[in-house]
Specification:
Length: 347
């Protein structure tokens, strides 16, 4: 069945991706939650408004669940961005988390940052680092520092060969140059208040190692090799979505990887899942429980507001979460999400 679906390019159709994920007769995520006495999965509030401002990016990474790249033209409009800011101004949501693509390539990125900062909100920029060295964006580090933006930056490994294998030739060196520049502005430095978080993704179909020990290795190796410092490391499991899903299927590793995720199911991670406190907004303004659901076009449960223009906090803060087989990626091992590992221990 997977061979047939592969011919139809799962990258192009979220419904096709969902069909692949739900095929194969594997134990459903919903069943695992129910058997653990933790269902139905429900939100507990909205602490983070995460907005995906588009798929345009200066890189084409092998693991990208957004399928972003330089040839993508999906970009959040000023109108949708203003609706997001309206929601922030009228509701007690502490954090605006801006992601993409390379979010900085959205023409309204700086306006968003400035407006959210004026509202007193914490602003996170999900940065790929190399954009900070790109022509036309080289003043971004100073802009981000001026507005006290927290940077969460992808760096799949402290070794050049592993990073370049996942993200493209020369990416590691440009990333190190960007990190050094951020360090000179205070990012990652003790007591500066400028938070710099690095993100590790496995280079293949495996679970991340234990977050604390890997963070120690990153601190040690980046300081010794490149004189780079940072505040913390997040480990994030590669989700079987879009480009990574296509790669799994093409190498005949899909079934094995899904079984790995299911076998590593950890009910201790469920209370800390990001979908319980985060609301995701697509570049078109549609609402989702998380960024991964967004990429699969798995919308909010029926009866909930489906667009940012219809935002209703009372209806959304205790909504039932839409789930699928990909959710095993967030509950495997020590868990995973936009804030890294959830639990200190595997099941």
């Amino acid at each position: 069945m997977l061979t047939l679906l592969r011919q139809h390019n799962p990258l192009a159709d979220p419904a096709q991706q969902r069909l692949i994920l739900e095929s194969g007769g594997l134990k459903s995520f919903g069943q695992s939650v129910t058997e653990s006495g933790l269902g139905p999965l429900q939100a507990t509030g909205i602490e983070v408004l995460q907005i995906d401002v588009g798929k345009l990016c200066n890189q084409t990474c092998k693991h990208c669940h957004v399928d972003a790249g330089p040839d993508r033209r999906e970009v959040m409009s000023r109108e949708i961005a203003e609706l997001c800011l309206k929601v922030l101004s009228e509701n007690d949501i502490a954090t605006l988390d801006i992601t993409g693509g390379a979010p900085e390539m959205n023409p309204h990125f700086r306006w968003l940052v400035e407006a959210a900062s004026k509202l007193g909100r914490r602003v996170i920029d999900r940065c790929n680092l190399t954009i900070l060295m790109a022509p036309g964006f080289d003043d971004l580090p100073e802009f981000l520092a001026e507005h006290r933006v927290d940077i969460v930056a992808s760096l799949p490994c402290y070794l050049a060969e592993n990073t370049d294998a996942q993200r493209g030739d020369g990416v590691f060196q440009k990333s190190i140059e960007a990190l050094r520049r951020l360090n000179t502005l205070g990012y990652g430095q003790p007591d500066s208040g400028l938070e710099l978080t690095l993100v590790f993704n496995p280079t293949g179909p495996t679970l991340p190692p234990q977050q604390a020990s890997l963070e120690d290795a990153y601190h040690r190796e980046l300081k010794a090799r490149h004189d780079v410092v940072f505040n913390r490391l997040f480990t994030i499991t590669n989700m079987p979505i879009a480009r990574f899903l296509d790669d799994l299927i093409s190498h005949g590793q899909y079934d094995e990887y899904m079984q790995t995720l299911i076998n590593a199911w950890n009910p201790q991670t469920v209370p800390g899942l990001m979908c319980r406190t985060t609301l995701s907004v697509s570049w078109e303004g549609h609402l989702f429980d998380c960024d991964f659901n967004q990429m699969l076009n798995l919308g909010l449960s029926p009866g909930q507001p489906q667009h940012i223009r219809d935002f209703n906090a009372l209806e959304l803060i205790q909504r039932h979460i839409s789930t699928g087989q990909h959710c095993y990626g967030c509950t495997a091992g020590t868990g995973s999400g936009c804030t890294g590992a959830i639990s200190d221990e595997s099941a």
